[in-house]
């Protein structure tokens, strides 16, 4: 039975009047559990829009504190939050936006030791991390846990987003694109090469959109499709991602059968 308070009906009215959402769809959103990897550039718009939409449980992991250089793109945080743990700043911002939320925060770094225990309680994982070791760890863990993974990345004026539906055998995985991380130091970090702050908003909003579509079971998934965004020339390009039969993780004869740790961080 659907039951909304008068306040919820007013808050979510623009969703409820959509035939593709309605009361049943909004209830799905309210009951959903989504985990965000990072409370930074991508995690900020992702979490804000999921909170505004009414996603009932939002988990956020980040071990860092708010720094002045973050505020150019990390819109979860403000100047008074400087020095505060990002997850605490995030929780305050999200619950101020929507008091009905259950915001679960983890002030730690994802690792082989904690990731499986954390993600088991969530329906969807959104990766907004900024380094390859974490990206590969999140991909492998969500594959083993059969979770939906929505992956986003940004660099300078560019961004990418795609969906890996690890609950389906037909879905490719991140290693179908990149079998192994590049050598440390080969790819400069955003700190070294820069990033146009608004790019995080564009890609993060696309990730949040994909998450809501997966929750609703509506629309065409980005599974098997990689969206590449070039903000400098204002172009979107779509590239097909095929499941690699020789993928070391999800291929016919997988070589990776447990989580791996890449010691040297190399930033994306």
Entry summary:
The protein is of the alpha/beta class. The protein contains 10 helices and 8 strands.
Give structural attributes:
268 residues, alpha/beta, eight-stranded mixed sheet, globular, disordered C terminus
Describe the protein:
The chain is an alpha/beta fold and 268 residues long. 34% of the residues lie in helices and 18% in strands. The protein contains ten helices and eight strands. The chain has helices at 6-11, 13-16, 22-31, 43-53, 86-97, 115-119, 132-145, 174-177, 190-193, 197-216, and strands at 33-37, 57-61, 102-106, 124-127, 148-155, 158-165, 225-230, 235-240. Strands 3-2-1-4-5-6-7-8 form an eight-stranded mixed beta sheet, sandwiched between helices. Helix 4 runs parallel beside helix 5 and helix 4 crosses helix 10. It is globular and about 55 Å long. It starts with 5 loop residues before the first helix and ends in a 28-residue tail after the last strand.
Number of helices: 10
Instruction: Please provide the ordered H/E string of secondary-structure elements.
Output: HHHEHEHEHEHEEHHHEE
The residue fraction in helices comes out at 25-40%
- Biggest beta-sheet profile: 8 strands, mixed
Number of strands: 8
Distance between the termini: 46 Å
Strand order of the largest sheet: 3-2-1-4-5-6-7-8
Low-confidence stretches: 264-268
How confident is the prediction overall: mean pLDDT?
A: 93
Residue fraction in strands: 15-25%
Rg, Å, rounded: 18 Å
């Amino acid at each position: 039975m659907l039951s909304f308070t008068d306040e919820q009906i007013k808050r979510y009215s623009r969703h409820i009047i959509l035939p593709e959402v309605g009361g049943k769809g909004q209830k799905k959103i309210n009951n959903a559990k989504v985990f965000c990897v990072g409370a930074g550039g991508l995690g900020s718009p992702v979490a804000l829009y999921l909170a505004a939409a009414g996603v009932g449980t939002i988990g956020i992991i980040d071990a860092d504190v708010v720094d002045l250089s973050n505020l150019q793109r990390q819109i979860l945080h403000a100047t008074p939050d400087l020095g505060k743990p990002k997850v605490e700043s995030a929780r305050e911002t999200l619950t101020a936006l929507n008091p009905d939320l259950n915001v679960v925060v983890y002030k730690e770094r994802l690792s082989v030791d904690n990731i499986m225990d954390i993600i088991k309680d969530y329906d969807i994982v959104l990766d907004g991390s900024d380094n390859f070791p974490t990206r590969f760890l999140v991909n492998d863990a969500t594959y083993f846990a059969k979770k939906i993974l929505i992956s986003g990345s940004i660099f300078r004026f560019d961004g990418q987003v795609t969906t890996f539906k690890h609950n389906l055998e037909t879905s490719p995985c991140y290693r179908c694109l990149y079998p192994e991380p590049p050598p440390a130091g080969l790819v400069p970090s955003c700190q070294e090469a820069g990033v146009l702050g608004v790019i995080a908003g564009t890609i993060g909003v696309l990730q949040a959109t994909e998450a809501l579509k997966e929750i609703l079971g509506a629309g065409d998934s980005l599974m098997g499709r990689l969206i590449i965004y070039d903000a400098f020339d204002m172009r979107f390009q779509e590239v097909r991602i095929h499941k690699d039969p020789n993928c070391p993780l999800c291929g016919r004869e997988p070589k990776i059968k447990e989580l791996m740790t890449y010691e040297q961080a190399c930033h994306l």
